[in-house]
Amino acid sequence: MSSKRLILPLLGAALLSACATKKQALPPTPPAEAAPPAASTAPPTTTTIPGDSPVGTTNVPGSVADFVAQAGSDKVLFDLDSYDLNDEARGILGKQAEWLARYPNIRVTVEGHADERGTREYNLALGDRRANAARNFLAAQGVAAGRMTVVSYGKERPAVEGSDDAAWAQNRRAVTVIAGAR
Question: Under CATH, which number does the domain 64-178 receive?
Fold first, then answer.
């Protein structure tokens, strides 16, 4: 009886070893040949846009990159609880109006934004007043009102995350967004 008990485990071990696959030794790999020297190519032309990373091509006239480069910025900043345009904002909007005069088929959306302080309703209303202040200035400079739309995001889309004066100052803004040809 003890031999029967011994045969069964031995038979199982033999079956398992018969099913095992044998690892074959791989022939040694030949040393890699030295790659030919790479052909010298000129680096791609890059243009740096203020506040942006380098772009692989130059600014295309009428593009968003061209707009930002020519106007100096696509946004204007506001003081706390204010929608009055300061001298710097009027200068930027004046350059935006000049660019828009060169491209009469381009439509824009003026977005109004606020910092995180205040209620949602208050900031939506303040963002609307800021967007309309920028829109009205552009219209006074000759940009047709029909080419512009206004939207307020209040505090919902901050440009900079943070709860300090520097972040709040960057979030109190109106942004002119190129919407495309009419």
Answer: 3.30.1330.60
